[in-house]
Design goal:
Elements (H helix, E strand, L loop, with lengths): L6 E4 L6 E4 H9 L6 H6 L13 H14 L3 H14 L1 H10 L1 H8 L3 H7 L1 H8 L8 E4 L6 H10 L10 E5 L16 H14 L6 E7 L5 H5 L13 H18 L4 E4 L4 H11 L5 E3 H21 L8 E4 L3 H17 L4 H5 L2 E5 L2 E2 L10 H4 L14 H8 L3 E4 L9 H10 L6 E4 L11 H6 L6 E4 L6 E2 L6 E2 L2 E2 L6 H11 L6 H12 L4 H5 L10 H18 L6 H9 L15 H13 L3 H11 L1
Parallel strand pairs: 3-5, 4-5, 4-6, 6-7, 8-9, 8-11, 11-12, 12-13, 13-16
Antiparallel strand pairs: 1-2, 9-10, 14-15
The protein binds oxaloacetate ion (OAA) and magnesium ion.
Magnesium ion binds next to α14.
GO molecular function, one term: metal ion binding
Cofactor: Mn(2+); Mg(2+)
Pfam family, one: Malic_M
Length: 604
C-alpha cells in the first residue's frame, strides 16, 4: 500500500526528480491520455505506445470493449478494471452513459457479482488503494485502529469520507444472507452517488460489517472470504453495531451513514436506535418507500380511479414492504385528505402464510401487526390467487422475492378486476431472478393496460403489431438516495425525518418533463438523474430548514431569504434564488472526472 503524501526522490543515474507520488499515480492512471509533454516530465516516455488519446477517444474505446464483452458479469469485470486503473475514465463512462451502465454496476448485475464476490474479489480491488472497510465482529473493539489504518493507507483527499454505505450482508437485495459477499452493494450504491449527486469518489466509503453468515453454502465453501461462523444473537448484534457506529462517528465526525440491506428486524431496529443520534437513514425502508410513493402518485393520476377507491395488496411483508406501505399510507392521508383509519383500511398484506389477519392464529412479527386485517370474519386466504379474489386489488405490489409470483393467472385476474380503470402492478423484488414478473409478462397478460414499475431494470417492450415501444419505470431507490445523501452532506441536518424524505419524494413525482409525461412515464429518465437530483436536493434541504433541522447557517439563511420556493412547483425549472445558490454550491463542490484530469495535468 502506498503512503499518501510520500515524495518520491528518484536518483537513478544522474536524474533527480521530485514529485508527489500520488500525482504521478493519478497521471499514469490516465494511461493513453497522458499528453506527450507530461510523459517526459514524469519520465514515462518510452514506456508506452507513442499515440495520445483524448479522453473522449478513451471513452469510445471503452464503450466498444464493453459492448464486445459477452455476459453482464464480464462487463462488470471489465468496468472494475477500468475503475481500478483509470478512475476518471470509469466515472466519465458512468456519468455519460448512465442508462447503459447502471444495470451493470448496480441492479441486476450487482446481484450476480455479490453471489460470486469471494471468487472475484482479488480481481475487483485495486492493489494500491484502500477501497472500503471490512470490519469483523472480532475487531469491533479496535475501531480506533481500523480508522487509523484506513487514514494511513488513504491519500489525503480520502481521509475524511463524507458518506458511507454500510451493510452486514444479511439481506442482499432479494438474495438473502450473503455475508461478506454483500460488499458489492455498498460499492455499487456509492458509484451511483458519484454519478447521481456528483460526490467525490474519494469521499465515499463502502463498509461491510462481517458478523458471520447463516448461509450454509458459504460456510462450506473453502473460497468464501468472510468469517466462517453463524451470525450473533440480537444483543451481541446491537452491541457490536454500537461499537462500529460510535467508532465511525469518532473517526469521521461529519460522515453521513446509509444503512443498507440489513435483515428486516435489524433494519428497523438500527434506524430506531440511531436516527436521532447520527446523520443517517435506511435506504430500504425510507429510500424504497419514497421512490414508490413518487411512482404511486403518478400512477394514481393515470389509473382513472380516485385515490380513496384504491385497494393496495402487498405481496411480501419485510422491511421494504412495510417501509413502502407506511410511506404510501402517509401520502394517502396527507395528499388525498383521508383519515388514518380509512387509509389503513386500503392496505392488505400477505406473507408466506397468506393474508395477514389478526385472527390467523400465529404470532405476527411486530412490523405486521399494524396492517393485520380485522374485518375478515372467518376468511383466511392462503394462496395469492385466493387473496386476489378476496381483496380485488387495484394496486399489486410485489416485495416477496418470489420469481413468477405474479403469474399469468394472477395478472389476468387483476386485469379483469380493473376493467374500468388501469391496473397498477409494481413487482419490486430485486434482482430480476427474484422479480414477481417481467415487464413483458405484465403487458401481455393485461392487454398492455398495466401501469408498471419494477425494482430491477427490464428492457423496453414493443407492443405486438405496432411500432410502439414502451420503457418500463424503474421504481428503484437510486432516484432517492443520492439526494438524501447530498442534501445531508451540505445542510448537516440534526436528523433525517420522514417528512423531509416525503418532500423529496414529492419533488421526484413532480420532476417529469413534458415528454416523459406525454409518454405516460412514472419516473424521469435515468439519464436525467443528475439533473433531477438537484431539484430533489433543494426540496430536502428546504424541508430540513422548515423543520429547524439544518445546522449549516448558510442554508438556513438562504432558504429563509427565499420566500418563494419555486423549485417545488412542478411546472417550473428550479430557478429560485435558493436553487441558484444550490446549483452554484453543487457545481463548486461536485466532482467531475474531466475537471480533475485537467487540474492534475496543468499542475505538473
Ligand atoms: O439495490 C437496489 O437495487 C434496491 C435496494 O436497495 C434493494 O433491493 O435492497
Ligand atoms: Mg437495498
Amino acid at each position: 500500500m502506498l503512503r499518501a503524501t510520500k515524495i518520491l526522490r528518484n536518483t537513478v543515474g544522474k536524474r533527480n526528480i521530485t514529485y508527489n507520488i500520488m500525482d504521478k499515480i493519478h497521471v499514469i492512471q490516465l494511461g493513453t491520455a497522458v499528453p506527450a509533454t507530461t510523459r517526459k516530465k514524469i519520465h514515462v516516455n518510452g514506456l508506452m505506445p507513442v499515440g495520445v488519446d483524448t479522453i473522449k477517444m478513451q471513452e469510445d474505446r471503452a464503450l466498444s470493449e464493453l459492448e464486445r464483452r459477452g455476459s453482464s458479469m464480464d462487463k462488470y469485470m471489465f468496468l472494475s478494471w477500468v475503475r481500478n486503473n483509470n478512475p476518471n475514465l470509469f466515472y466519465r463512462l458512468v456519468i455519460n452513459n448512465l442508462a447503459l451502465i447502471a444495470p451493470i454496476i448496480y441492479t441486476p448485475t450487482i446481484g450476480e457479482v455479490c453471489l460470486q464476490y469471494s471468487n472475484v474479489y482479488p480481481f475487483l480491488s485495486p492493489c494500491d488503494r484502500v477501497n472500503g472497510l471490512y470490519i469483523s465482529i472480532d475487531e469491533v473493539d479496535k475501531m480506533d485502529e481500523i480508522v487509523r489504518n484506513y487514514k494511513e493507507h488513504s491519500e489525503p483527499s480520502s481521509q475524511d469520507p463524507k458518506i458511507c454505505v454500510i451493510t452486514d450482508g444479511s439481506r442482499i437485495l432479494g438474495l438473502g444472507d450473503l455475508g461478506v459477499n454483500g460488499m458489492g452493494i455498498p460499492v455499487g450504491k456509492l458509484q451511483l452517488y458519484v454519478a447521481g449527486a456528483g460526490l467525490n469518489p474519494k469521499e465515499c466509503l463502502p463498509i461491510i460489517v462481517d458478523f458471520g453468515t447463516n448461509n450454509q453454502a458459504y460456510l462450506n465453501d473453502s473460497r468464501y472470504l468472510g468469517l466462517r461462523r453463524a451470525r450473533p444473537d440480537d444483543d451481541l448484534f446491537y452491541s457490536a453495531m454500537e461499537k462500529v457506529i460510535t467508532g465511525l462517528k469518532k473517526g469521521f465526525p461529519d460522515m453521513f451513514i446509509q444503512f443498507e440491506d440489513f435483515s428486516t428486524d435489524h433494519a428497523f431496529g438500527l434506524l430506531r436506535k440511531w436516527r436521532e443520534k447520527v446523520m443517517c437513514f435506511n435506504d430500504d425502508i425510507q429510500g424504497t418507500g419514497a421512490v414508490i410513493m413518487a411512482g404511486f402518485i403518478n400512477a394514481i393520476a393515470q389509473s382513472g380511479l380516485p385515490a380513496k377507491e384504491h385497494r393496495l395488496l402487498f405481496v411480501g411483508a419485510g422491511s421494504a414492504a412495510i417501509g413502502v406501505a407506511d410511506t404510501l399510507r402517509r401520502c394517502i392521508m396527507t395528499d388525498y385528505d383521508i383519515s388514518e383509519d380509512d387509509a389503513k383500511k386500503m392496505f392488505w398484506l400477505t406473507d408466506t402464510k397468506g393474508l395477514v389477519t389478526a385472527n390467523r392464529g400465529d404470532k405476527l412479527a411486530a412490523q405486521k401487526v399494524y396492517y393485520a386485517r380485522h374485518d375478515n370474519g372467518n376468511t383466511q386466504c392462503k394462496t395469492l390467487a385466493e387473496v386476489v379474489k378476496y381483496v380485488k386489488p387495484t394496486v399489486l405490489i410485489g416485495l416477496s422475492t418470489v420469481k413468477g409470483e405474479f403469474s399469468r393467472e394472477i395478472l389476468e385476474s387483476v386485469n379483469n378486476i380493473n376493467k374500468e380503470n388501469r391496473p397498477i402492478v409494481f413487482p419490486l423484488s430485486n434482482p430480476e431472478t427474484k422479480a414477481e414478473c417481467t415487464f413483458a409478462e405484465a403487458m401481455q397478460y393485461t392487454n398492455n393496460r398495466v401501469i408498471f414499475a419494477s425494482g430491477t431494470a427490464f428492457p423496453p417492450y414493443t407492443v405486438p403489431g405496432t411500432n410502439k415501444t414502451i420503457v418500463p419505470g424503474q421504481g428503484n431507490n437510486m432516484y432517492i438516495f443520492p439526494s438524501i445523501g447530498l442534501g445531508s452532506v451540505l445542510a448537516k441536518p440534526r436528523m433525517v425525518t420522514d417528512t423531509a424524505i416525503y418532500a423529496l419524494s414529492k419533488a421526484l413525482a413532480n420532476s417529469l418533463n413534458e415528454q416523459e409525461k406525454a409518454d405516460g412515464n412514472l419516473y424521469p429518465s435515468i439519464d436525467r438523474l443528475r439533473k433531477v437530483a438537484l431539484s430533489l436536493t433543494a426540496a430536502i434541504i428546504h424541508q430540513f430548514v422548515v423543520e429547524g433541522l439544518a445546522q449549516d447557517e448558510k442554508w438556513i439563511a438562504l432558504v429563509k431569504d427565499n420566500t418563494d420556493p419555486k423549485y417545488l412547483d412542478p411546472n417550473r425549472k428550479p430557478d429560485g434564488y435558493f436553487c441558484d445558490a444550490l446549483r452554484e454550491e453543487v457545481n463548486r463542490c461536485s466532482w467531475s472526472p474531466t475537471a480533475e484530469v485537467e487540474t492534475f495535468v496543468s499542475n505538473l
